[in-house]
Amino acid sequence: MQTLSKLIQNNLKQYGMIIALLLIVLLFQILTAGILLKPLNITNLILQNSYILVLAIGMVLVIITGHIDLSVGSVAAFIGAISAILMVELNMHPFLSVVLCLLLGALIGAWQGFWVAYIKIPAFIVTLAGMLLFRGLTMIVLEGQSIAPFPTDFRQISAGFVPDFFGSGSIHIFSLVISVALSLIFVYKEVKDRKNQLKYHFNVLPKSLFIAKLVGVAVVMNGFTYILATYKGIPNILVILFVLIVGYSFMMKKMVVGRHIYAVGGNEKAAGLSGIKTKRVTFWVFVNMGILSALSGLIFAARLNAATPKAGNLFELDAIAAAFIGGASAYGGVGTVIGAIVGGLVMGVMNNGMSIIGLGVDWQQGIKGLVLLSAVAFDVFNKNKSSS
Amino acid sequence: MADILLEMKKITKEFPGVKALKDVNLQVKEGEIHALCGENGAGKSTLMKVLSGVYPYGSYTGDILFQGQECQFKDIKQSESLGIVIIHQELALIPELTIGENIFLGNEQSKKGVIDWSQTVIQTKDLLKKVGLEESPDILIKHIGVGKQQLVEIAKALAKEVKLLILDEPTAALNESDSENLLNLLLELKRQGITSIIISHKLNEISKVADSITILRDGQTIETLEPGKDEITEDRIIKGMVGRNLSNRYPQRDSKIGETIFDIINWNVYHPLQQDRKIIDNVSLHIKKGEVVGIAGLMGAGRTELAMSIFGQSYGQKITGKIKKDGKEVEIKNVSQAIKQGVAYVTEDRKTYGLILIDDIKANITLPNLQQISQRSIINEQEEIITAENYRTKLNIKSSSILQKTENLSGGNQQKVVLSKWMLAQPDILMLDEPTRGIDVGAKYEIYSIINELAQDGKGILVISSELPEILGICDRIYVMSEGKITGELNREEATQETIMEYMTNIRGEKHADLEQAYTK
Ligand SMILES: Nc1ncnc2c1ncn2[C@@H]1O[C@H](COP(=O)(O)OP(=O)(O)OP(=O)(O)O)[C@@H](O)[C@H]1O
Ligand SMILES: [Mg+2]
């Protein structure tokens, strides 16, 4: 009995948020009388939250280095506006426009990163200024108007689906093939990792739980794809998200840069004396945030099929909340990409679920605030417990 | 026989993965100075944290009897109300507040929530006089040295009407005269009837001031040495701590000294904030292959600043001078260039500059060496684990595994992690800044052996140390610094404590006369 409670305690932190997410999904599935997990709604859920999730990935990196970025919503709006001018007013090719927009995002990130990393102005202030600056610029370039509509090719980012190469029946077969393949790869990697860890006598999940975890992930993943497949299959945006999540997770966990980012956030002085170019790391984390803000802005514009002066309003708060719900520490040095994604999904599912059951925006805001606070409180509580 | 003031019985304290204390017993008599000795990670700090309520009742098992009464402290406030005050290994003063504000922090002299400043100042002055500190109460803490800060901590304890004062390695960061000062103060407090428990790895101090000594090893009480019953000598304490006689404090070494591999020529450094304040003044020095070179000096002589400015200009501005490696001039403008040139620096301040405390042992050791264990920027996790495990065993780092967070390691073991990280970098020149601060005798011996091994391999070693016996014990050649200048160079044969001290103080002879006195005592 004692071992079981210890086990739960040890793994609570790691899996706590995922379990919470599943519970929230279950709750709203019941409250919405099954609408939540309807194929159409799931597809919507992904489309609605994609731009926040993209921001959350960048934001968690910023937070890990011990900073914050309040400007992401404004930057997203600004890039959306620029993309509209390029594509709608100047008739530039969508692909070229997207590349230019991402470059512009990088430039904006570099601008803010320069002040934060090299001039040492607190990120809170630099990006607060950025939030005002880029919102202002958005309104200036749009002259207070919306610009629409975008070319169809561009809208595919948010509105398109992965084509089915196996003919089109009522079910999207290709999606299922991808999903099964991915789950097999996942199981293989996990088994390999566990073997390795056992070799070095690390604490691992006991076998039964481990198998339960693998089965759980496979069922959720394939079940989820199956639901999508009964509608239109996998949205393009999900592919982009998947690539970003896997890529950034890999970078943070297994690559030298990732280590450097964690080290700078953990103790900047010690990192510097270990040969890490701390200013450069901070600078590039902001450049990266700029690029992802731009991407987020593009996705949003494509989904809305318009660039508006109000776009991206309060995105920064959702992205920051996602990172913190996902276990990032406000002191820096702690956080994961997956955590931020799970945090973003918690917020997304709640938004969606509460809208379906017809809760007003007022209540939604309040409840989201409480969820943020309790998630972080849970984390802190857990930490105190394990260290004393 | 004096009365027993404190009795701790069968204290057991577990952390996830480690049993830090196993049935520990401790008896402290009224009015004595009781020393707690033991190797790094033996559980000394933990025992004191249990006593003072840092680890609340319920998180450990066993009984605490203070003045005959059973105590179950939920927090520090409760133990303080009984007069048990602990001064932690890391000082807990707030740099931006004044001496007076710090002393009465949490204990403010106030009427209905409004602070009575004149009362605060009067009482602070009184307390400062008691601890022999001549500073005005409204000086900011950050403007006084560590030695004085330590005295402020004690004044703070006195303000709380302390009966039992606990000091965890109070002299680790102090120079000898400040240490001397502090120990005298303890003796003075003892005359006034205040009992104290002191933890220290400086055994000469222990044998000087302690009335009785309890020795811990691996979380267990080994014995208590009492005057009259046992002989209290350093050797006897060491025997209790490590379980055997340590006949020689410094391992033997046959120096095989080769060519010069590292030259510093006309090195000048200015203060990072004050443009025209010269901190290092035209220093030239060299290190040969296989040589252990020491730098002696008083605190503030500029030794750390020298080493850090050499190490990729990590300190200061307007740096001029040449660095030659193997006779060729090299450019070392930042830390990664320094590492590339095979220069490493082990800091004296492991918590601020050495470790990422929230990370585990493994990540800390490999941090400067990620290139070594990665292919195309992807870290080879297996290799990382093997490497870290290797150093954990080699340096005998006491921990539950290489995944233990460094913030949960005992002070000495943290030091070993920092050392590992730079040994792994396999530098040609290793600069060690106070490498044995806060380290137990056994581990010191291990570290000296490692230094010897590295020298044997033809590396050049530079050791900065404030402990003269250590410098004399391990170095082939000694530079002495004072006020940013090199004031003397001595060979092993000609060096004695007296000659070194002369050079250490000779520039402003008069001002340091009192220090000199303290040293020769
Ligand atoms: N919060 C914690 N979590 C896990 N282990 C801990 C924690 N604090 C201490 N330990 C472990 O408990 C043991 C005793 O540590 P403690 O700090 O009491 O040693 P110490 O005798 O004071 O050593 P030193 O002389 O190096 O300061 C060590 O093995 C340490 O790693
Ligand atoms: Mg200790």
UniProtKB/TrEMBL annotation, chain A:
GO terms for molecular function: transmembrane transporter activity. CDD domains: TM_PBP1_transp_AraH_like (cd06579). InterPro entries: ABC_transp_permease (IPR001851). The chain crosses the membrane at residues 15-36, 42-63, 94-114, 121-142, 165-188, 209-228, 234-251, 281-300, 320-346. It is found in: Cell membrane. It comes from the Bacteria. GO terms for cellular component: plasma membrane. Its main location: membrane. It is a multi-pass membrane protein. Keywords: Cell inner membrane, Cell membrane, Membrane, Sugar transport, Transmembrane, Transmembrane helix, Transport. Part of the binding-protein-dependent transport system for D-xylose. Probably responsible for the translocation of the substrate across the membrane. PANTHER family: ABC TRANSPORTER PERMEASE PROTEIN YPHD-RELATED-RELATED, XYLOSE TRANSPORT SYSTEM PERMEASE PROTEIN XYLH. This is Xylose transport system permease protein XylH. It comes from Paludifilum halophilum.
Automatic annotation (TrEMBL), chain B:
It is a peripheral membrane protein. GO terms for molecular function: ATP binding; ATP hydrolysis activity. Its main location: membrane. It comes from the Bacteria. It holds the Pfam family ABC_tran. GO terms for cellular component: plasma membrane. PROSITE patterns: ABC_TRANSPORTER_1, ABC_TRANSPORTER_2. Residues 6-243, 264-508 form the ABC transporter domain. It is found in: Cell membrane. Keywords: ATP-binding, Cell membrane, Membrane, Nucleotide-binding, Repeat, Sugar transport, Translocase, Transport. This is ABC transporter ATP-binding protein.
